[in-house]
Amino acid sequence: MNEDELEKNTCESLYDPPVGAHIGVEITHKPSNITVRNIDKRTQFANKVEAIEKLKFELLALNCSNSD
């Protein structure tokens, strides 16, 4: 997965009074048109890392289903 194949956007923030605002990240893999979003973590960086992991899992699952 190359960096130029990804489109990254920030999502609307969620506000949880005890912990503050959460900035979500949405990443689209352009060749497959798979989009993942993560808003669970407290920082944008942590959400980006988790979104990339989710995207890798989705691409692996897609690759496995195409090889059957």
Termini separation comes to 21 Å
Helix % is 25-40%
Helical region count?
A: 1
Largest sheet: 3 strands, antiparallel
**Beta-strand percentage range:** 25-35%
Any idea what the shape is? elongated
**Secondary structural class:** alpha+beta
Radius of gyration: 14 Å
Number of extended strands: 5
- List SSEs in N-to-C order: EEEEEH
Mean pLDDT: 85
Strand order, sheet with most strands? 1-4-5
Identify low-pLDDT runs.
Answer: none
Description:
35% of the residues lie in helices and 31% in strands. By secondary structure, it is of the alpha+beta class. The strands form two sheets. A three-stranded antiparallel sheet has the order 1-4-5, with helices on one face. A two-stranded antiparallel ribbon has the order 2-3. A hairpin with a 4-residue loop joins strand 4 and strand 5 (34-38). The two termini are 21 Å apart. The relative contact order is 0.19.
The gist of it:
With 68 residues, this protein is α+β, with helices and mostly antiparallel strands. It is built from one helix and five strands; from the N terminus they run βββββα. It has one helix spanning 44-67; strands at 6-10, 14-16, 20-22, 25-29, 34-38.
